[in-house]
Amino acid sequence: MERTCNFFKCNEKDIHAMFQQEDLSADVLLKWSKLLEYDFFRIYSQHLIMYSPQAPEKYNKRTSSVPQFRKNVYTKEIIEFILELIETEKKSKKQIIDEYQIPKTTLYKWINKFSDRKQYA
Predict the structure, then answer these.
(1) How far apart are CA 106 and CA 46, in angstroms?
(2) First-last CA distance in the chain
(3) Tens digits of per-residue pLDDT, 28-76?
(4) InterPro entries of this UniProt entry (predicted)?
C-alpha cells in the first residue's frame, strides 16, 4: 500500500476511494496499468474490435488521396471548378467521375443546369 500511495502521491484513503469509484479517468487508469504492469486499455480496445461493425469492403479498397465528396458538400465553387475543367478540356468527364468520385448523373445534371445560365449571362 505504501508503494501505491507513493506512486499516486496520495494517501491510503484516496486509494480506497479509487476502488469505490464506478469509473476512472484515463490518466488514472494509465497509472494503474503502469503500476500493476497490466494493460487495462486492452480490454476496451478488444471490446471495440469485437463488437464494432466492419466497414463495407468498398470503403476498405479506396486509397485515393482525393477527398470523398458528398452531395451536401458540393458548393457553388466546386461545381464551377469541375465545369471549368470540362470546358477548358483539362479533364474529360470520365476522368472527373473517376478522380473526384462524383456520380455520373450528378455531373450531367450540373452540365445541363449550369450551361443554360452561361448562355444567357
Answers:
(1) 41
(2) 82
(3) 989 998 999 888 888 777 777 666 666 666 555 555 566 665 555 677 8
(4) Homeodomain-like_sf
